[in-house]
Amino acid sequence: MPSKPANDKAPTRKTGSLTDKAYQELEELIVTLRLQPGEVLSETALSEQLKIGRTPIREALQRLTREGLVIILPRKGILVSEINPGKQLLVLEVRRQLDRLMARSGAVRRTEEDRGKFLKIAAGLEQAANENDDIEFMRCDNAFNDLLATATKNEYAIRAIGLMNGLSRRFWYVHYKETADMPHCARLHAAVARGIAEGDPDAASEASDRLVDYVEEFTRSTVNAGPTG
Predict the structure, then answer these.
(1) Is the whole-model pTM more than 0.85?
(2) CATH number at 85-225
């Protein structure tokens, strides 16, 4: 199924090269379950679906493999990775520290141009909350992650968080309708974006902790509920 057409509510993500474009589109398809866990992928079919050459598709799949969203099995094929709820709590242990660090650093190092972009993202998150639009929330969240990586200016933190963003986003999308309040979560994200925009590291880090507190509560309730479906 093709991805949902973009509209004018979400901030535009920088597409960069064809590999970047392929990665962004594939990541969204996987995170929003239009490519299901365990599904076998074909470079040729993906190339035709996304109208992007096979080389960028292959390079994007290699990146998704590093991030744990895709598994390449020699002589067997390319699979979308399965979801492991128990491991998500381990991810959150690391994310709490990294998110706090990046929020503080972003608030200190962001430029005036970044400030306007963070405020635009915060407004997009609020709109997604008001309209209960999960796809728009996911796109705003992704735009926030991209901008925060730029504003933080810490390549080591960026590499570390990049290994977890997609897995965290997919886990959320799979389970949020069961136990989570998406509008509330979107507003918690918006508070982090505003703290960074205003150049207030304390407000940004405190908002980040509140967000992770909520996500951890959601994750524990999901894990304790056991498998569904």
Answers:
(1) no
(2) 1.20.120.530
